[in-house]
Amino acid sequence: AGLYAIELGRRATQILDGDLEVRHYRPLGRRLVWAQSLRLVRVASLRQDRGLPRPYWKELGGDGSVRGIERNTILAVDGGRLGINLRNELRARYRDFGLVLFWDRANVWRYTRDVMKWKNITSFKQFMLLMVDGYGVGLRYTMGIPFRVDFALNDGFDQSNNFWVYFSIGQAF
Fold it and tell me: What is the pTM of this model?
């Protein structure tokens, strides 16, 4: 998806906003599926002399990106321009009931060059510290479409609440 926006007024700016998501579903048996999603979000001001308006800052967290984190709390100081969101689910189903194990990861950076610091990573532990994690278990009941309840924890990023419960209709992705 892409968006081109022009803000009118004395300090007019032009914005290019993009959202790319790739999903992969791999059956692991008759009742087991591994679902994966990679989402990249990027926004840029086309006028270098203008700042990026606040409504276009990228923020992640919450049910739509990282379960176990409060909505829109993964952000960059002075406005995130690039975000990466990885989601994994191991889905088991028996008749109308399902059980899901999930692990979501994301982060937001102000500049693309901040992500390029990944080339200096020398250990798995350093890589793990670059992203915010949410993980948990979910229950599903399908009546044509799935009703879901997810119980999620985070990796300590959100100190105010470490445990979250989500109820929604449809798959997470």
Answer: 0.84
